[in-house]
Amino acid sequence: MVAPDKPLPYVGFSLLQLATAVAVLIVGWILTKLIVGSFKRGMKKTNLPDLVVEFLGRFLSALLYVAVILLAVRALGIGVGSVVLGLSAVIGLILGFGLQDTLTNLAAGVWIAALRPIDIGDVVEVAGKTGKVQAVGIMGTELITPDNTLIVIPNKLVWGSIITNYTRMPTRRVSVDVGVAYGTDLDRAIKLAMELMKRHPQVLKEPEPSVVITALADSSINLQLRAWVKTEDYWAVKGDLTRGIYELYTREGIEIPFPQLDVHLRNE
Questions:
Q1: pTM of the model
Q2: Domains in the chain, start-ordered, CATH in brackets?
Q3: What gap in Å lies between CA 8 and CA 11, rounded to an integer?
């Protein structure tokens, strides 16, 4: 039986060193969680945005995990200097093969956290994906889609793409398109639509709602109802106005035509 302090065959370290390394990993993992949690709580008491706090917390977590791993390696009796030298060689090899995405994503994450074109809780469209921002990590930005799917986009794609932020501004304009038949009394149709919007409790009085003619289409005259609302009320008001204008026009005898084609036959 091998003594706890004697090196194991073929591995070069003892059972005691192995147990110490495992203990260092466990204690280090617990301490890292506690330190990062305390760091986040302290940072949230400042005026820093949640996005910046989350990014700094993840960055600190990564640094602490690296430190814990190095301590565990040292507990095994392996020189930390040789490990760092080996990691440097691996990093150099990675960069030599042109895989600089890690550093690019890290730098992009810093810029996103610093300039904040997006923030936690914002609904955005970026890199062709739409969702609510959950976090900006060291390597990727996390979005939750409306159907509760998690999407992680590399930070370099977020920083290098056009970003549409749907919830950053306090108000938004709701636009509802509706077509009326040719021959309709447009003044009456517009008046009814205006009354519908003004009656809605969540439509803002300023800027005032409006109705515009957007096109003389093949089968209809297209109108657009435009109402300003608080951003958080956008979808509720859009649904109410869409249903409301249909029911109102139906009740008032204003035809909403469907696409149709008239065919004329000529006898030769």
A1: 0.63
A2: 15-99 (1.10.287.1260), 116-165 (2.30.30.60), 171-251 (3.30.70.100)
A3: 6
